[in-house]
Amino acid sequence: MKPGAAQLPLGVGMRDDATFANFQPSGNEALVGALRAQLDESGEPFLFLWGGEGVGCSHLLQAACHEASDRDKRALYLPLDELGHFPPHMLEDSERLDLVAIDDLHRVLGRKRWEEALFHCFNRLRDAGKRLVIAAPAAPRQLDIKLPDLASRLTWGMTFHVKPLDDVGRFEALKLRARVRGMQLPDEVARYILHRGPRRLGDLFATLETLDQASLSAQRKLTIPFVKQALDW
């Protein structure tokens, strides 16, 4: 790659726990299936994900990159919320990768150099038969894109609205995250945490991590009295 791209490590900003196995797909099964199949020969070349804060767009993009790595493919995760203040050099030679995952697209829209670089990146990946997945808070036609050619390209692939979890889905997501961490989380304790804890899933999972550490330190099982004590609820 060119010098500007080489300075940015692959997987910048990625979390080890952002995997498909650690994602509760309730209501988003078709999207997860499309992402997991994207690197197949018959996979969709371009996927666009959109949804509100906390629904899991970033998790899914990182999971796609982890999946690519597990299949010995080269992937790059670009969170533009962190990287958008740089020039778009990291998009150069992107066609050498198997998958490019661009998060927080809205952070660079309206900036001529970035919009042009994204347009050319899209074309190079398409011509090379590589894969691209992009996430933003809104669907392509609702974004404030100045470059008409880029706006057109972003409607070419499959677009998915990442749906937020309902209460049943949140319960299942909490139980899933506990299982992945090796925690014994009784149903009544999970319901108590959901009732008293934060609404945002990321904050809820952080609460679960706090309880895991407290439980290990105290050598105690997770019960409602212990949760009250550990979290001062």
UniProtKB/TrEMBL annotation:
GO terms for biological process: DNA replication initiation; negative regulation of DNA-templated DNA replication initiation. Residues 43-159 form the Chromosomal replication initiator protein DnaA ATPAse domain. Residues 168-231 form the Hda lid domain. InterPro entries: DnaA_dom, Hda, Hda_lid, P-loop_NTPase. It comes from the Bacteria. Coiled coil: none annotated. This is Regulatory inactivation of DnaA Hda protein. The lineage of its organism: Bacteria, Pseudomonadati, Pseudomonadota, Gammaproteobacteria, Oceanospirillales.
